[in-house]
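Next up, sample data:
>
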Amino acid sequence: MNAATQLLSARDVRRLDVGVAVWIAVWIVVAVVVWHDIAVQAQLSRDVVKVGTAVRDTGRALGVVGALPLVGGQIGDFAHRIQSMGTDVQGSGRSSHDAVRRLAVVAGLALGVLPAALVLLLYLPLRASWRRDVRAVAAALRAAPDDPALRQYLAHRAVGALSWDELRVATVDPWRALVEGDSRALADAELDRLGLGRPG
């Protein structure tokens, strides 16, 4: 992973940071929308509970009529079945309401957390490795800003990481500059790529 991180410039890392932040924000918005839409469906379950309550109450009212001596037991049996059906509908509505609420939470969390966690698990180690590399170069630069070996190292990194056009901006012939030990322009180009300035 270190070789891959050495090819990243400070600009690349800033773009990746923005891309990861946008990715996470988009999935959080999607998760909230899905959670809200599923949670709204719980209203249907509440309506089912209301219908069940109305049916049960109708059964109770018919039960009062069925208890009258002249009407007989047939209405009483019918009323009991209606009341029992209303109680069953209420129970189904309540359990459906709970299931829909759980589904809303699980779907919201899954859509909000899983894509973000996956990207962070892949990106954060890369970002941390790049940061360690840049800090090591910065520390070496602070310790010995004019060290020819460090300058040569940075020049070689520049040749491996910069495009041909970027190399030509630094020096007309990058390979000759390396062979002749004229590495300051290439080293400075690498420091710019990493977002570091030469001290003092």
Notes: The helical segments are 2-6, 10-66, 73-143, 148-161, 164-170, 174-180, 184-194. Residues 136 and 142 are 10 Å apart (CA to CA).
